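I'd like us to work through together how a protein chain folds, taking it slowly. To get us started, please write out a protein record for me. Go ahead whenever you are ready, and we will take it from there:
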Amino acid sequence: MTIDDHTNKLSELSPSGYFLALRMGFVFPVYEKKTLPKKWIDRYTSQGLVLSDPVMHWMYQNVGATRWSAISIDDPRGVLEQAKFFGLNFGVAICHADMGEGQQRSFGSFARSDREFSDAEIAELTRTLGDMHRMMVPPKNLTKAELEALRMVKNGLLMKEIANLLGVSEGAVKQRLKNAKTKLKAKTSTHAATMATTFGLI
């Protein structure tokens, strides 16, 4: 299954939308998706509600799953009450993390307007998030030459410039970047360079 297959499954299970962050790095996740109502995202962002959001606090402090209604963390700015104005009446927070030192987290907040999520739905969301977390494990098989080419793409160099600097043909550079894209499951060379940077490979 692809990432798109998994996000389609998440959309089916959370009809009011969701926020997803996979493999949270030092600053940014490797992959992020928001399908929550735009007006809610705009308010949440403009008012800096992430700093007070009990759901986000729970996901940074815990591993597992819990319904929003079961979170006992203070909500001084009434984030969950504000969310109800946008149809986000019920929700579940899920966090998956690697074991050991340097662990990375993937988490999601899933919403619906009509009722609490069932235990079966929470289990399915948890499985899907876990699958996506494992799909985004940084590859360890990129060669030195592929990483060097990605580093140059990151620095804004063109194909011809990269070839000249490396003393190889443009075809050789294209092949290195193609290999890197395949290993990183990236759509473009720029995307591959961004992913490699997020993974700390370059």
